[in-house]
Amino acid sequence: MQTESLLLWGGSGYSGQKAFATYSTNGIDWATPVSIPSLYGDLSSITYANGKFVAVGYHEYGGKDYGYITTSTDAVTWTSAIKIGEDTETQLMAVTFGNGKFVAIGGGRITTSEDGISWSALARISYDKFYSIVYAKDKFIICGTNTVIFTSADLVTFEQRFAKPGTSSLISVLYESGRIVALRSNGYYLLSENGIDWSEPAQITDESGNTVTAKLNGICAVH
Question: How far from 87 is each of 18, 62, 82, 109, 219, CA to CA, in Å?
């Protein structure tokens, strides 16, 4: 993720190692990665708002994955990751900020916070898995498995806007230049001007018209 002058990247732990984060002010030179206290697993997503970075991730314990959240004000020193949902198995996959709240998602559930420190109990929205979230057009937009898209303006009422059961997952959603783009892992994308009405999935092609067949993991805007 990027602020005006800082790029931040999170990584995954393996074989019992801690997750890590690093940062750069130019995208070329990167600081030495620092480990995230108490997170022995994957760091999935990072956002920045109200003077702090909020990162979400998960790690396996006793054969189950549990969601964790950590924060930092300088991208160097991170708080000990806190477990979200004491007995709820949820991989936290993405976090964003909008309408005065941080929102983290995963496993068809959401949790919210006004300060990034105290979080609500996990609430189930769907039995589809959630992978990405963005705040755009005065609403939160969530995407996940089966090309499912949910929206909510108040984080209380959620409406399913799109779904194609049996298809690839929507793994990333982005808002840029007045348009919302949702990306499927198999190289298809959907477009929306308002988050409510969506185009049918279209396949990505290169400059020569060749279809992109590589498995995709995310989408970003370059300024």
Answer: 22, 12, 13, 14, 32
**Which residues, 6 or more positions from 72, have their beta carbon under 8 angstroms from its beta carbon?**
21, 52, 53, 55, 78, 79
pTM of the model: 0.89
145 phi, psi to nearest 5 deg: -65, 160
| Average pLDDT of adjacent 10-residue blocks, the chain of 223 residues | 54 66 84 87 91 91 85 92 80 96 96 96 94 97 95 96 86 94 91 94 86 74 61
Contact 128, 162 (CB under 8 A): no
Alpha helices in the chain (DSSP H): none
Q: Parse the chain into domains and list their residue ranges.
A: 1-93+108-124, 128-223
